[in-house]
Design goal:
The chain is of the alpha/beta class. The protein has a single domain, classed as P-loop containing nucleotide triphosphate hydrolases (Rossmann fold), CATH 3.40.50. Helices cover 38% and strands 29% of the residues. The strands form three sheets. A six-stranded mixed β-sheet has the order 6-9-10-3-11-12, with helices on both faces. Strands 2-1-4-5 form a four-stranded antiparallel β-sheet, covered by helices on one side. The chain has a two-stranded antiparallel sheet with strand order 7-8. A hairpin with a 2-residue loop joins strand 4 and strand 5. The longest helix has 15 residues.
Length: 248
């Protein structure tokens, strides 16, 4: 699904990612943990294609294709989903219309006609039921006046509608309240399939009590300094990041 080899990335001449290696296979959930400022969001942004970064070295293969040569606007159509750490508000655009546009853009890319209205609405209903989302939320403008929990619900709803192959969820460093945490985790658990994969980025171990990852990586100062099973998240929670810092 995703193969990152010796990825070195800088911004304004400052090296942020210092040789990342990562292999994600279909069906896997990987967690990336690490202290603040170590490059977690940078990694997510580079995969999604934000172009403020300079790729100094390395490669990213996504489904065997050279991702770094793939146009940014095509990456979503190719099945990459990035949940925003700070979701934008789009006043005047309902979630329903926003989602219809997103779904149809993706279909167009694959040479398909727009989804018939009844089919689209049925799909919305199915996903709403699955994620336990209120009908009212879908009629509101995207993120306008949403609580943190509602923004997360909307994000997971978008993910459910777009059915990505690779979903990257970058959580805020301040942490989510318990309701939002359960929305995110419940969504991921319901959407897990043998043919998709998740990269869950989190500063805290708490989220991983609800989403049980297959593999946990610790990112420290631009490098993955340790990888292991879900017990590694527990170990980090107990010993804190100072333990990693002293080892690194
Ligand atoms: P994390 O998500 O692990 O907290 P980030 O990827 O956000 O870390 O940041 C890693 C480093 O890159 C930090 O030192 C941060 O200051 C720097 N950085 C991130 N984005 C920018 C930017 N747009 N301009 C300058 N420096 C940045
Ligand atoms: Mg940060
Ligand atoms: Mg971050």
């Amino acid at each position: 699904m995703l193969s990152i080899k010796n990825l070195r990335v800088s911004i304004d001449g400052k090296e942020i990612l210092k040789g990342i290696n990562l292999e994600v296979r279909p069906g896997e959930v990987h967690a990336i943990m690490g202290p603040n400022g170590t490059g977690k969001s940078t990694l997510a942004s580079v995969i999604a294609g934000r172009d403020i970064f300079e790729i100094e070295e390395g490669e990213i293969l996504y489904k065997g294709k050279n991702l770094l040569e793939m146009a940014v606007e095509d990456r979503a159509s190719e099945g990459i989903f990035l949940g925003f750490q700070y979701p934008v508000e789009i006043p005047g655009v309902s979630i329903t219309n926003f989602m219809r546009t997103a779904v149809n853009e993706q279909r167009k890319y694959h040479g398909l006609d727009p989804m018939p209205a009844n089919e689209f609405l049925a799909k919305m209903e199915e996903k709403k039921r699955m994620l336990d989302i209120h009908a009212k939320l879908a009629n509101r403008s995207v993120n306008e006046g949403f609580s943190g929990g509602e923004k997360k619900k909307n994000e997971i709803f978008q993910m459910a509608m777009l059915e990505p192959s690779l979903a990257i969820l970058d959580e805020t460093d301040s942490g989510l309240d318990i309701d939002a945490l359960k929305v995110v985790a419940g969504g991921v658990n319901k959407l897990r399939r043998p043919d998709n994969a998740f990269l869950v980025i989190t500063h805290y171990q708490r989220l991983l009590e609800y989403i049980v990852p297959d593999i946990v990586h610790v990112l420290f100062d631009g490098r993955i300094v340790r990888s292991g099973g879900k017990e590694l998240a527990m170990e980090l929670e107990e010993k804190g990041y100072e333990w990693i810092r002293s080892e690194a």
